[in-house]
Design goal:
388 residues, alpha/beta, TIM Barrel, 3 domains, 8-stranded mixed beta barrel, two-stranded antiparallel ribbon, 11 helices, 10 strands, Glyco_hydro_25, GH, hydrolase, signal
Length: 388
């Protein structure tokens, strides 16, 4: 019995639809990927988030835990000023000490539960080198622990400037030998991507993307980043008592939840990241700038670094190519005659006749010029009549 043609066409259409749905499922990392049970999740928290570790461990999709470490510059250890200033200074130092103790305790518990560990630094205006030192001294990152730079926005009056953020990254690399992940929102990520020739480090860090929408394919800065390392999709901004994209057991509604574009085993294998995207690290070599002997003996100075070599910028490449094109074009131009007979009229025909003369005596040149046909005087070859 033969199958009717219209049934064959219907079966073919159904098969095509099934293939399309399968491809869409595979390409859904930009559209609610947390609904895919195969995608790994990561929690990030700060000191005021309460955690019930026993309940948290029941969610087997949670692979990692990233905790806030340092915040801007370290508080002063020695306090001075009036009574109010001294009390505030001591309170800040006490908070700093308690926060660090909590940080270390959470690290021990998380690792005991088999979770991958990470730390982030909330970057604020101020010395970027000292902020990087504060972060490393606070977090004490091990080789298998993720580091992240938290860049909340592109307003240098509230947060670290992008230029200082690049120096922060350099200092972390100098001390640890690895790079942090860049945490930022969609607007700032797009600005960095649009100006990637200026921000050659920030634009090449693995991206921890913060956007609380179900779909980000239209907004994601493709072209610079082809994908995200982590996507922070749930936070206090879109998670409440009655609705939340994803709830993790043992955590409050305001906890930040992130999804990875891979399964748990793949994320564990890539964890800590630490490299740049498509850029070798050779050009990051730097040397300390020399200081004066007096400053060195005084002991009050900050070591700064200068780049040994950096990749050419777009403007530099345009300049070099333009110079080479000019040289290539000049090779086809007529050579400039520097020594010619001084005559009242000396056109192109005169020049050709003079050039063909084997002997350069005055009599022979006069004879050649006299025999030249139809001499034409041009502005480009006319004799300069000035006497020297």
């Amino acid at each position: 019995m033969k199958t009717p043609a219209h049934l064959l066409r219907r079966s073919a259409l159904a098969l095509a639809a099934m293939v399309a749905l399968t491809l869409a499922a595979k390409a859904s990392d930009f559209s609610e990927p947390w609904k895919n049970a195969d995608r790994a999740l990561v929690i990030d928290a700060y000191e005021y988030n309460s955690i019930d570790w026993g309940q948290l461990a029941t969610d087997k999709r949670v692979v990692g835990f990233i905790n806030k470490a340092s915040d801007g510059l370290p508080p002063p250890y020695f306090c001075s000023g009036d009574e109010t200033e001294v009390r505030l200074c001591k309170a800040l130092w006490k908070r700093h000490a308690v926060t660090r103790e909590l940080f270390q305790t959470r690290k021990v518990v998380a690792k005991a539960l088999g979770l991958k560990w990470g730390a982030y630094h909330l970057a604020r205006p101020g010395n970027p080198v000292e902020q990087a030192n504060n972060f490393i001294d606070f977090a004490e990152p091990a080789p298998d622990e993720l580091m992240a730079l938290d860049l909340e926005g592109n307003d240098p009056t509230q947060w670290i400037s992008l230029e200082d953020a690049e120096e922060f990254v350099r200092q972390v690399h100098r001390r640890v030998g690895r790079f942090p992940v860049l945490y930022t929102n969609g607007k700032t990520a797009q600005y960095i991507a649009d100006n990637r020739y200026q921000y050659r480090l920030l634009s090449r860090l693995p991206l921890w993307y913060a956007r609380y929408k179900p779909d980000i394919d239209v907004h994601f800065p493709m072209g610079n980043w082809q994908g995200y390392a982590l996507w922070q999709f749930s936070a206090q901004a879109n998670c409440g008592r009655f609705h939340c994209p994803y709830r993790v057991a043992g955590t409050p509604n305001d906890i930040d939840v992130n999804v990875a574009p891979m399964n748990g085993d793949q994320l564990r294998a890539q964890w800590a990241f630490g490299g740049l995207i498509d850029v070798p690290t050779d050009y990051l070599a730097s040397i300390p700038v020399p200081i004066s002997r007096a400053d060195g003996l005084a002991g009050k100075f900050t070591i700064t670094y200068a780049d040994v070599a950096t990749p050419p910028t777009f403007e530099e490449m345009v300049s070099v190519l333009g110079a080479r094109w000019q040289k290539f074009r000049d090779g086809f131009r007529m050579p400039v005659v520097k020594t010619v007979p001084r005559r009242p009229r000396f056109g192109i025909a005169d020049y050709v006749a003079w050039k063909r003369t084997e002997q350069r005596s005055t009599a022979q040149i006069e004879a050649a010029l006299a025999a030249a046909a139809d001499p034409v005087s041009t502005a480009s070859t006319e004799l300069d009549r000035r006497r020297r």
